[in-house]
Amino acid sequence: MSEKRISLNAMAPGKVGVVRHLAGGRGFVSRLAALGFTLGAEVTMVQNFGRGPLIVLVRDTRVALGRGEAAKVLVEATNNEQ
Amino acid sequence: MSNNQTLKPAIENLITVALAGQPNVGKSTVFNLLTGLSQHVGNWPGKTIEQKTGTCHYNGTEVRIVDLPGTYSLTANSLEERIARDYIIRERPDVVVAIVDAAALERNLYLVAELLSLPAPVVLGLNMVDVAEQQGVHIEPHVLEAALRLPVVPMVATKNQGVRELMEAVDRVSHDTAAYAPIRPEIRADHQAVLAQIQQLIAGAVPEPYPEDWVALKLLEGDEEITSMMRERLDEARWQEVHTILMQHEDAILAVAGGRYEWIGRMVRAAVVRPRIGQVTLTDQVDRYATHPFWGLLILLGMLGLVFWLTYTVGAPLQELLDTYLVHAGAEWVRSALHGAPAWLVGLLADGVIGGAGMVITFLPILVIFFAALGLLEDVGYMARAAYVMDRFMHLMGLHGKSFLPLFLGFGCNVPAVMGTRIVDSPRARLLTILVAPLVPCTARMAVLAVLTPIFFGHHAALVSWGLVGLSLVVLAITGVALHELVLGGEHVAFIMELPLYHLPNARTIGLSVWQRSVAFLKKAGSIILVVSVVVWALSVLPGGEIDTSYLAAIGRLLAPLGGLMGLGWQTMVALLTSFVAKENTVATLSVLYSADEDGARLAKVLSGVLTPAAALAFLVVQMLFIPCVATVATIRQETGSWKWTAFSIALLLVISFAVGIAIYQGAMLVGWGM
Predict the structure, then answer these.
(1) Which helix (H) or strand (E) holds B153?
(2) Which chain A residue lies closest to B252 (C-alpha atoms)?
């Protein structure tokens, strides 16, 4: 399965993935966790134009992330689409 | 009631309730409903974060309500989070009311999971159940209550539903704390042994009033504040043991957070019914445009255009009316009432005091419009979208999207710009935003520009004006980049932001926020403005009564060598100094000093005779980039809570304005344009 791990940046709008890894310092990880990003959480890409910040839906919350931040969230893409 | 109070000791009739909740859950609406105008707005002790308290009465009990800062969690990631948890741990409120958004229940319960490990009973206000229903999420409060073993009160705060029931639950819990036994979250199973080990190692060394198990958990989470506290408390050998364990489990935060969400999953499983599959909500539809890189930008510009249109069509005329009928009339009245009194007294009151107070009052219409626009955009949920759309541009100067709106407000007036930086969550990014905000040309500076550029540059006035505005923005961007290195140490500010659901604005919430911000401005900035206005007035008339021979003129002459580098005489330096009270003073002072008696045509003739085009340009440049007016400086002091940063801001702008002014003048001379 590990070959299917991609960063949030590489996820197309409408695709659904499951969080598998959160890189970065403890402060950053704890901020992400408080907004719903934990291992196993499902994220849906809402907006990603390939540059600039992106928007994902996680635990019923729309969260905007900078590309630098999104690069630290690794997801396993599922085949589901929304 | 009074009879009741004499029978019982007074203390039994007073309870303290802390209001907790994540951002955007309608917590302030609940707070406003409960406390109304009994609110007191101040700062948390020693902090620049706003603290709101208020009281309400329920069932013969006086309930003191403390609004905790809205936070997603209680880890020491931010000052707000530290304030919230310190308050609960140290002040021990009788009850903590946690307001959660029913439409994003799971994420909202994350904060509740943290609150439950603190030593205060929790009552859950399940707000926005109407929004949740619209989203297709149905929640059974009783089932949730049974699972959590906490009182759960369904609410629609915007429609004043459930507030009474909430207070009923608070009253019940405060009287019967023994019955309070919630189901608390636990760390993920694979980390339970480590947690127990740490708790054993720190046993007995945890200072009051911190709960031991909570401290152990926070150590494992890597909480910096708690870690340094325990490092001091434990002896070296013991600390090394703890430290080794912590190093081996650096990713324990994931186990802690994972454990909380597992608990949340168990709690909501039976209570939440959600047939939601691929529903397209109103928020999704609006966001398709509002967050689009192109359409979003257009919408943003449209909204801001509207705010400015309002400012000019409503605010500016009101400002003039107030100026004519209140300030000038007031000054006239003082003059006639004090007929025969010593001239210095009349001058002090009519020019110094009323001048300063009038300046504060005439500021109000524009401020109220800006505060209302700010409050409305915040309340509807649009603010986060504006930040999102502007993020890529703000990145160029090491800031992120949240700094855009306050800076934009600066075009109207720098005061709301500085106040508006409260939405920037990183304290250092906020400081950086405050420091560059005065470089945004405000309406008052534009007004000076509008008077002076035609005098100096005739037909090219518009071109020169736009050039000066452009120059200000370029200087702002360069300063931003430079300060980013200095203030933030080049540190990257993480951009993680919730985009809340859109909802209808609540007039009460907006009204109260306008009221509180205006009062805060009047109270804090007002007194400083008054003092500075009186001082500048005194300097301009002492010792002889004439400005030409005054101390102010002496200071201007002292600065003449500096002005000389820009081809400027001492009079223009004095004009700059008086612009500190209000930017509009520049023109008035020039008129007086060049004895043009505020006669536009005469002033034009005199000025164009004294200043070469290069010097005039340099003067306008300095005027644009100079220290902001005293109202802004007072606000900077208020918002940074530091005289040191206020002084730094002034020094920075002095250096920037004169450096750019000199560079422009000398550059113009070099190309032979100044003759």
Answers:
(1) strand B152-154
(2) A26
Any B CB within 8 A of A68 CB: yes
pLDDT at A82: 57
Are both B367 and B234 inside the same structural domain? no
pLDDT attached to residue B582: 78
pLDDT above 90: residue B515: no
Pair B265, B297 in one domain: no
- Using the beta-carbon criterion (under 8 Å), do B254 and A29 form an inter-chain contact? yes
Contacts of A28 in chain B (CB under 8 A): 494
Chain A residues within an 8 Å CB radius of B426: none
Q: Which residues of B touch A55 (CB under 8 A)?
A: 287, 291, 388, 499
Q: How many residues does chain B have?
A: 675
Q: What is the pLDDT of residue B169?
A: 95
DSSP string for B536-563:
HHHHHHTTTS-GGGSHHHHHHHHTHHHH
User: Considering only alpha carbons, which residue of chain B is nearest residue A58?
Assistant: B107
Measured between CB atoms, which of A41, A53, A60 is closest to B391? A53
Residues of B in contact with A14 (CB under 8 A): none
In three-state form (DSSP H/G/I as H, E/B as E, the rest C), the secondary structure along chain A is CHHHEEEHHHCCCCEEEEEEEECCCHHHHHHHHHCCCCCCCEEEEEECCCCCCEEEEECCEEEEECHHHHCCEEEEEEEEEC
**What average pLDDT score do residues B476-484 get?**
89
Instruction: Indicate the residue type of B171.
Output: D
Q: Is A69 close to B496, i.e. CB distance below 8 A?
A: yes
**B346: amino acid identity, one letter:** V
Instruction: Supply the range of the domain harboring residue B210.
Output: 189-273
In this complex, do A34 and B73 lie within 8 Å of one another by their Cβ atoms?
Answer: yes
Q: Both tokens of residue B69?
A: 């800062």
Same domain for B383 and B500:
yes
Query: Could you list the residue range(s) of the whole structural domain that residue A56 is in?
Result: 2-81
Instruction: Check B284 against A46: CB less than 8 A apart.
Output: yes
Q: How many angstroms separate the CA atoms of B259 and B255, rounded?
A: 6
The average confidence (pLDDT) of chain B is 85
Q: Is pLDDT at B276 greater than 60 in this prediction?
A: no
Does pLDDT of B600 surpass 70?
no
Q: How do beta strands B496-499 and A54-58 pair?
A: unpaired
How many independent structural domains does chain B possess? 3
Helix (H) or strand (E) holding B258: helix B252-269
Cβ pair B293:A22 closer than 8 A: no
A80: β partners: none
Are B260 and B296 in the same domain?
A: no
pLDDT in tens, B527-572: 777 777 788 788 877 787 777 788 888 888 888 888 888 888 888 8
Residue B3 has pLDDT above 50, yes or no: no
List chain A residues with CB under 8 Å of B498.
35, 61-64
User: Which CATH number belongs to the domain containing residue A57 in this structure?
Assistant: 2.30.30.90
Answer yes or no: is B455 within a domain. no
Check B287 against A63: CB less than 8 A apart.
no
Please, what is the end-to-end C-alpha distance for chain B in angstroms?
84
| Residue range B615-646, pLDDT digits in tens | 889 999 999 999 998 889 988 998 888 899 99
Residues B109 and B195 in one domain: no
**Statement: residue B273 has pLDDT above 70:** yes
**Which amino acid is located at B102 in the chain?**
A
Each residue of B202-248: pLDDT tens digit? 998 999 899 999 999 999 998 888 999 999 999 999 999 999 999 99
The partner residue sitting opposite A64, judged by closest CB among B251, B283, B388, is: B388
pTM metric for this prediction: 0.81
Domain total of chain A: 1
- What pLDDT, on the 0 to 100 scale, is given for residue B128? 93
pLDDT tens-place string over residues B118-177 = 989 999 999 999 988 888 889 999 999 999 999 999 999 989 999 999 999 999 999 887
